[in-house]
Amino acid sequence: MVATIPYRLKSCRNICCFWRQLVEEQQYPFQSIEEKWHAIWQQKKPARVTEDSDKPKYYCLVMFPYPSGSNLHMGHVRNYTIGDVIVRYKKMQGFNVLSPMGWDAFGLPAENAAIKNNIHPNEYTRTNIGVMTKQLLALDILYDWNRELATCDEEYYRWTQWIFLKFYERGLAYKKKHPVNWCETCHTVLANEQVIEGACWRCKELVVKKELDQWYLKITDYAERLLQDLDKLKQWPERVKTMQANWIGRSEGIEFKLKIDNTDQELSVFTTRIDTVFGITYMSIAPEHPLLKELLAGKPEAAKVKAFAEKVKMLSEIERASTEKPKEGIDTGLRLVNPVNGEKVPLYAADYVLMEYGTGAIMAVPAHDQRDFEFAKNHNLPIKVVIQPEGQILAANRMTEAYVEDGVQVNSGQFDGMKNREAMQKIAAWMEQEGIGKKVINYRLRDWLISRQRYWGCPIPMIYCDDCGILPVPEKELPVTLPLDIPYQPSGMLESARDFAETTCPKCGKKARRETDTMDTFIDSSWYYLRYASPRDQEHAFNPEAVKYWMPVDQYIGGIEHAILHLLYSRFFTKVLHDQGLLEFDEPFKALFTQGMVLKDGQVMSKSKGNTVSADYMVENYGIDTTRGFILFAAPPERELEWSDQGVEGIFRFLRRVWLLYERWIPLLTNTPNKIPDGLPEKDREIRRKLHQTIQRITVDLENDFKFNTAIAAMMELMNDLNTVKEPSPEEAAGRMSVMKEVCLNFAKLCAPFFPHLAEELWQQMGHTGTIFAAGWPKCDAAGAAEEKVTIVIQVNGKVRSRLETTPDMDKQKVEAKALADDRVRNLAEGRKPKKVIVIPNKLVNIVF
RNA sequence: GCGGAAGUGGCGAAAUUGGCAGACGCGCUAGAUUCAGGAUCUAGUGGGGGCAACCUCUUGGGGGUUCAAAUCCCCCCUUCCGCACCA
After folding, report:
1. Which of A79, A197, A540, A810 has its CA 20 to 30 A from that of A831?
2. Angle ∠(A646,A697,A81) on CA atoms, nearest 5
């Protein structure tokens, strides 16, 4: 018995009130309404769609979740609710709406749980998918569950492998030995994008460098297009585009070589400040630069430099990258020749030079680069000024910091006296002409390291044969199945699974080994949006016709945390598949919306902080519609949402008032005709005006940036007005009833995307047999919405002093005359003539004395 | 350090071709109902002043443009986010 009573009533002190309140509560029987429609939708499956060339399509996608052991949290609910409002709205507008759901199901947490609880990652994942599916179903969000997919399904990952092979064929997947980011806790390597402030993005453990032979995807080949095409993404947040642009980090400069004295070797450097090239006083090279080892072989400096390189290697990324740390370095004893002026300068191995960027060596101009300046001061290296600020003389020995601004060239040979911006172009051209240097574009973006030394992931479909080398698994042999029935161990599971690891060479038939690393899970999620178009296709990764119909995604919704990772990778995949001729478009997501986080007590909701509100609790005690309403109303969707129990109560009250409003009016409207009679009295015209203005406002709010909060506020205003509408006297009845009927029909439709259960129930109670979602989105009747009177504010010297009621669009002279005739204005005028009168039609008059 | 976004009542927030600041909700106050608490309903609710009509101040701070500024410009402060020796 007690179990069926909503929890929110249990705070009641005694059983008497208990009952009374229960009765009152049932004035809005949300539980039975929601249960009823839940059952009907479960059976009718209104989200099921197929390609239909007669209807415009709309693909609304929410970022699919990782099936973690903890329940669905409010962040998920917010994400999916936003998507659902859009889906239902677009449906009502007549679009053929695709709204799929699936599981980003490979990944490390499954293995970590296995370590902890001794459950097989597969079992763990499947169980979680079951639990979360149940929770999602309980939310009655419109998903076409026929299209459900999980990236750990063989039927999915065989195509992930197939796509990998396409990359390999195009030369976009390759293996190289290279120092990589290694996370000891996760026992695997990480891509650059997955290292945040020197630490693993998942477990926050500091990463270390390890030299390993790994698989990479050549995303750098697409750097320019990934950057350029950001311009195509008109409906993406600027913030995300900026982050991607910064990550790609394009910079234009000059690469040139310096001869190494007494050898026939040269050292390449890259600079964006070629205007300062005459100011080189020394050169710096990354201590681990391979050329260094070669050049120093047999020299006395070799040991010292090697020791320094070792020391630098021991530093963590953070320490090495810290700008606080004094810059250290060591003279290699080598001398280089500056090709522009023939000066000989020393070469230092320095810890502030990164092997990863540019050529791993730099020209050092202490006068005009802060880092070089600091290093030069520490090592007593000369400083040579080659750019003077206009109207000022810089003295090298008195400088306290580098001068990095623009100025005029000095000590720069034939370029002296030029403005440095101009000199930059001229020096570059001259160096190209002389064959000393060339223009080069550098990117910060690195190739994507995709090997993972983990079990629960998509196997990389490659084979190693002692005789034939590295070979791809033939397409017809896909999928390379991840073996499930093998002993569980913390690392090296696939390596020690002999049935898996041992195979035969597809070329020569001899014994060979399989690749036993799996792919980064971000690969799985880089193409899932394509699979949704034809999730059961046995012949293709994605059916060309289906993809042509559904793609690109019209609206993608998710968290900002994927601004670079997932979104950049997906764009890359789409471009490669486009180049492969498999897709006609080259950007996957037309519009992106990033929702804000859900907070409680100013902090992110999390289990460890113990400040979570579960979806189950909300659904049980307040209902889905109230939960949706709160999430949508409490803050604009892109902003953070602070959870408030009282705010939830507020929405609950609103929905109950809506319900009671219909309870009152529906019985009165049964025989009312739909046609609005002519010559309505003022009050009825007013009701209609409010209705049509509300339709207009909500439509605009939904079209522009999903302003759900103000849309709901508009509904509340309408409802507040309607609550003051009285039952009509007999002579008023015909007009009032038909107006109220129009109001009730349209208000229910306005509610539908936000409060689907309530709306559907009201719709049915008004005598409809079909669903409200097929009833069309209401249209604003411009004539009905038009104001009959306007209040014009009268300002005197910019301050509101009076008001004027007029008919709309009255001409300016008339308004001015009326304003000047106003009693208060005449008082304030004190007989003076106005200096100026500004009239803004339908808004305001400002009289300046 | 560089780049970006933001700062409005007690709180969440509205208002942008510059035109009534604070819509809507929460909270609070008073009244109705009730033995009482809760719930519900009605009214009020930015600050200061005034019996009142009304006056006055107010959108992080300071300046400016304008008949008119939350909105545009300049300087400063704070918060959040991203990048951070990228040559």
Report:
1. A810
2. 50
